[in-house]
Write a structure and sequence with these properties.
Oligomer: single chain
Shape: extended
Number of strands: 0
Largest sheet: none
């Protein structure tokens, strides 16, 4: 018989306030919100103009709860994502990161447009276009 050693896990309880949650626990929100967005986009394609994000979010919350409630385990969410979207943990995390990047870009664009609107107050005839161009250069 082969003598096999069992791997013992490291007990990090002595880390006290510096102790961190397991990787899966830290990534729960990313997985949860990725599933919500993916599910919503598929439903939006199916329903077309009849789709409403706010109503969808309410239905999603009834089914899945809120992220902070953790109604389902990480394993359950991953099994659901695999079944519905063929997405693994890694793919869901990548999707979530791209989603955050898109959100940040959208916020930057909105901030740029707001600054342009503020600058583009016509003081004298053709000055508003010139001021808007300068504001765009300063923002970039």
């Amino acid at each position: 018989m082969a003598n096999t050693k069992k791997l013992s896990l490291i007990n990090d309880a002595a880390m006290g306030e510096y102790r961190i949650e397991a990787y899966d626990s830290r990534k729960y929100n990313a997985v949860f919100y990725s599933i919500r967005e993916l599910y919503g986009k598929v439903a939006q394609r199916q329903l077309g103009e009849a789709f409403d994000w706010e109503t969808f979010k309410q239905h999603f919350e009834i089914s899945f709860g809120k992220a902070e409630e953790r109604k389902y385990t990480m394993e359950q969410l991953l099994a659901f994502a695999k079944d519905k979207f063929d997405y693994s943990l890694e793919k869901l995390i990548e999707y979530n990161q791209r989603s955050w990047q898109r959100r940040e870009q959208r916020l930057k664009q909105q901030a740029t447009y707001r600054k342009l609107e503020l600058v583009e107050q016509p003081a004298t005839g053709g000055d508003s276009i010139f001021a808007a161009e300068i504001a765009t250069e300063e923002i970039a």
